[in-house]
């Protein structure tokens, strides 16, 4: 019995979720000397996402499965998950003697932080396998070096984001939201969207302590006065985003619709799961070529 329990425990700790990231709002300031824009955002993470599984082996191999596996880069130096593992091996002087299987469900170049979520999940997974602290300053530095979204994806819980994405303040009380994610199956480069963005006013520098997010009503009351600064340039590059937002806004019981991140994925917030799933069915019937996922925000990464 003890052996079975230990095996089950090992199997569980060698699995990790990589939940999709959503920007409930995104304010973007001017580009700094480091090449990154100043950001301000409230991010949440979804029940929907990718999954990673680690198995001991001789040497390292990354296996990609799932509906979007073929859209990932072939070269290890271009794959964030492989780079995350290589970075950890260098930091801790260890050999990555394991295979990681990545089940890729999040559309690529969709504004859902999929690549960053995978890299962050790999960091958590390898740190757990090696018995090292993912909060180590060197690990945090590695995450920031992999991309602006990776530090926030390490937390994979509701958080305020500032700076270039490296300043992450977890939100202790945040309502769980029923969401419908919609992607018109058009990839949109983050670099292109930022390249088309013309900065306006500086970010507002909202004080998180002054915002009540504990209920759906209070969260919506706050979010109604926020926006996504990248929506306009993204719609200019990918006009179908406007169609997605219009469809979501007109759905029954939709409380708010917005683009996430640099797009093209958009989301709508509904009062409950039934309303969300009903809207998904109706939208899928009208637009069978679009990708849809009714989901709910989650507050842990396990």
Describe this structure in words.
There is one protein chain. With 302 residues, the chain is of the alpha+beta class. The chain has 2 domains: 14-170, Ribosomal Protein S5, domain 2; 178-298, GHMP kinase, C-terminal domain (Alpha-Beta Plaits, 2-Layer Sandwich). Helix content is 35%, strand content 27%. It has 10 helices and 10 strands. Strands 1, 2, 3, 4, 5, 6, 7, 8, 9 and 10 form a 10-stranded mixed sheet that branches. Helix 2 (80-92) runs parallel beside helix 3 (114-130) and helix 2 (80-92) packs antiparallel against helix 4 (137-146).
Describe the structure concisely for a colleague:
By secondary structure, the protein is an alpha+beta fold. The chain has ten helices and ten strands. The protein folds into two domains: 14-170, Ribosomal Protein S5, domain 2 (2-Layer Sandwich); 178-298, 2-Layer Sandwich (Alpha-Beta Plaits), CATH 3.30.70.
Q: Which features would summarize this protein structure in a list?
A:
10 strands, Alpha-Beta Plaits, Ribosomal Protein S5, domain 2, 10-stranded mixed sheet, 2 domains, alpha+beta, 27% strand, 10 helices, disordered N terminus, 302 residues
Structural class: alpha+beta
Cα end-to-end separation:
25 Å
How much is the average pLDDT?
92
Return the string of H and E elements: HEEEHEHHHEEEHHHHEEHE
Fraction of residues in H or I helices: 25-40%
Q: Per the principal axes of the C-alpha atoms, what is the gross shape?
A: globular
Give me the Rg, rounded: 19 Å
> What oligomeric arrangement do these chains adopt?
single chain
* Model regions low in confidence, pLDDT < 50 over at least 5 residues: 1-6
Reported for the largest beta sheet, the result is: 10 strands, mixed
Fraction of residues in β-strands? 25-35%
């Amino acid at each position: 019995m003890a052996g079975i329990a230990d095996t089950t425990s090992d199997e569980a700790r060698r699995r990790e979720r990589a939940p999709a990231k959503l920007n409930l709002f995104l304010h973007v300031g001017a580009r700094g000397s480091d090449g990154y824009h100043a950001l301000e955002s409230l991010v949440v993470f979804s029940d929907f996402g990718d999954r990673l599984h680690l198995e001991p082996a001789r040497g390292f191999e990354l296996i990609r499965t799932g509906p979007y596996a073929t859209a990932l880069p072939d070269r290890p130096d271009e794959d964030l998950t492989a780079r995350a593992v290589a970075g950890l091996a260098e930091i801790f002087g260890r050999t990555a003697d394991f295979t990681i299987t990545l089940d890729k469900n999040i559309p690529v170049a969709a504004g859902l932080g999929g690549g960053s979520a995978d890299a962050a999940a790999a960091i958590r997974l390898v740190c757990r396998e090696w018995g090292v602290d993912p909060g180590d300053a060197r690990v945090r530095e590695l995450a920031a070096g992999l991309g602006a979204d990776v530090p926030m994806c390490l937390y994979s819980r509701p958080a305020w984001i500032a700076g270039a994405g490296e300043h992450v303040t977890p939100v202790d009380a945040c309502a769980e939201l029923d969401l419908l994610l919609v992607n018109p199956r058009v990839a949109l480069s983050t670099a292109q969207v930022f390249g088309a963005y013309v900065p306006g006013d500086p970010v507002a520098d909202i004080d998180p302590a002054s915002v009540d997010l504990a209920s759906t009503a209070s969260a919506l009351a706050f979010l109604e006065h926020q926006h996504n600064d990248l929506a306009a340039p993204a719609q200019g590059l990918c006009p179908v985003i406007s169609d997605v937002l219009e469809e979501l806004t007109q759905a029954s019981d939709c409380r708010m619709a917005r683009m996430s991140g640099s797009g093209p994925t958009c989301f709508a917030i509904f009062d409950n799961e039934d309303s969300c799933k009903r809207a998904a069915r109706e939208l899928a019937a009208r637009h069978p070529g679009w990708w849809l996922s009714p989901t709910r925000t989650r507050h842990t990464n396990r």
